[in-house]
Amino acid sequence: MPMTPEQHGKLAAFVDAHHAGQVAFLREIVRVPSDTPPGDNAPAAAKAAELLERLGHTVERHPVPEAFLRDYGMKSVVNLIVRHRFGTGGPTIALNAHGDVVPPGEGWTKPPYEGVVENGRMVARGVAVSKSDIASYTYALEALKAMARDGVRLNGTVELHFTYDEEFGGLAGPGWLLEHGLTKPDFAITASFSYAIVTAHNGCLQVEVTVHGKATHGAIPKTGHDALRAANAILTAVYAEADRLEAVKSTVAGIDSPTFIVGTVAGGINTNVVPDRIVLRMDRRMIPEEDPAAVEARVREVIEGAVRAHAGIRVEIRRLLLARALKPLPGHEKLVAVLQRHGERVFGEPIPAVGVPLYADARLYGERGIPIVMYGAGPRTILEANAKRADENLLLEDLRRATQVVASAVADLLSA
Questions:
Q1: CA nearest 33: which of 122, 136, 115?
Q2: How far apart are CA 144 and CA 375, in angstroms?
Q3: Which of 98, 133, 168, 283 could connect to 376 by a Cys-Cys bridge, CB 3.0–4.6 Å?
């Protein structure tokens, strides 16, 4: 039987009564740095596991081997799984949030790893993206456990997946758990935004292009092969391609066009030497309609074609990342329906279901055929929350209300 309005009211009352404890829980989470890079994130996982065990959970710790991480570019990752069984039968629903963050950078007016609360907001690196949802998902599960103790019949399993490599792409986080058969949920909800339900996101191809030439004295440049001049031709071709992509439009609401940028340029020997080597790093965002293999082939064609007329120049193209787009899968509409229903009830306004132009490790669940959406307590908008900028912050009222929404949505799925 579906949950009654009275029962949903009791879920909300539990969340309200435990909000102060949830805020304290979140403050302890954000006080452990988990900057990625360098990605030495086992201490952050240890703190989360400790806090979960204080709440009475059995916490599975799944360390990723050093050999994998060494090649991957990180130092330590321990992924956490909590499994709580309700009744018999029913679906398994995974709630995933990542505990790694980008380094804080400069410009903070509050300590980035203190969790200062001021004017109803907590300020800390990662508090919005996405340590907030470690707290929202944990306390949504606590509310469900309380309902079950009160005799409400729920059937199914809730799994908490707390992972620590989203900033590197997710292969050592959800990717590792799924690849090694450590979990196989029927549905998944991952960290996102407190108002919109994200049903799709862009993919991303990142490549490193090394342009090899031949150094020579700046007084006799014709006796060398200028890697920078060749790199300049590549830049011109890349930006022409970027302009062309503006005419390509996605049919997914919230997603516009593919993009193509050069993020870093490095190289050269000295001011008076013709450069023998230039390294470019590029980011090509893919809309859900695009084929990643075709996109990568086109990127290589653009780069290689730009230098064909440059004698003595050789280019190496190395793929750094291929993150496929998240596309809606059959079954995701059940997640959208319950989240929209309770989101509108709790927040008092319609909750849109949209795509976003960024990419996330949610795609890894989708690649395994698991219906998934992104929803949580994080920023209403990235700019409002200063996500990945100085003074990142979270409106604590959104944490409270999003926790109510997630608890009620999962309750409906377990009582259907």
A1: 115
A2: 18
A3: 133
pLDDT of residue 388: 82
Evaluate if residue 129 carries a pLDDT over 70.
yes
pTM: 0.90
What size, in residues, is the chain? 416
For tokens 């503006």, the residue is 246
| Helices 131-149 and 19-30, packing angle to 10 deg | 140
Distance separating alpha carbons of residues 177 and 295, to the nearest angstrom? 28
Q: CB of 342 within 8 A of CB of 408?
A: yes
pLDDT in tens, 283-299: 999 999 999 999 999 99
- The encoded tokens of residue 151 equal 């005799």
Look at residues 148, 176, 142 and name the one whose alpha carbon lies nearest to residue 162.
176
Q: What share of the chain is helix, strand, coil (3-state, %, to 5)?
A: 35, 25, 40
- Fill in the DSSP letter of residue 217: B
pLDDT digits (tens, 9 = 90+) for 157-190: 999 999 999 998 899 999 999 999 999 999 999 9
Is the omega angle on the peptide bond into residue 408 within 30 degrees of 0, that is, cis? no
Query: Using 50, 70 and 90 to split pLDDT, how confident is the model at 1?
Result: low
Give bridge partners of residue 163 from the DSSP assignment.
98
Are the C-beta atoms of 99 and 162 separated by less than 8 Å? yes
Which tokens sit at 311?
């004698």
Q: What is the dihedral of CA 378, 384, 389, 392, to 10 degrees?
A: -50
| Burial state string for 216-237 with b = 16 or more CB within 10 A and e = fewer than 16 | beeeeeeebbbbbbbbbbbbeb
Query: 400 pLDDT band (50/70/90 cuts)?
Result: very high
Beta bridge mates, 282: 207, 262
Average pLDDT value over all residues in the chain: 96
329-334 own/partner pairs: CB under 8 Å, 24+ apart: 329/366, 329/369, 329/370, 329/371, 329/372, 330/371, 331/186, 331/187, 331/371, 332/199, 332/371, 332/372, 332/373, 334/187, 334/371, 334/413
Distance in angstroms (rounded) separating the CA atoms of residues 48 and 54: 10
H or E stretch covering 9: helix 5-17
Q: Does 37 sit behind a cis peptide bond, omega within 30 degrees of 0 on the bond before it?
A: yes
Residue 215, φ and ψ in degrees, nearest 5: -75, 150
Residue 5, C-beta contacts closer than 8 angstroms, at least 6 positions apart = none
| Inter-residue contact 132 to 399 (CB < 8 Å) | yes
Contact 93, 156 (CB under 8 A): yes
C-alpha 48 chain-centroid distance: 18
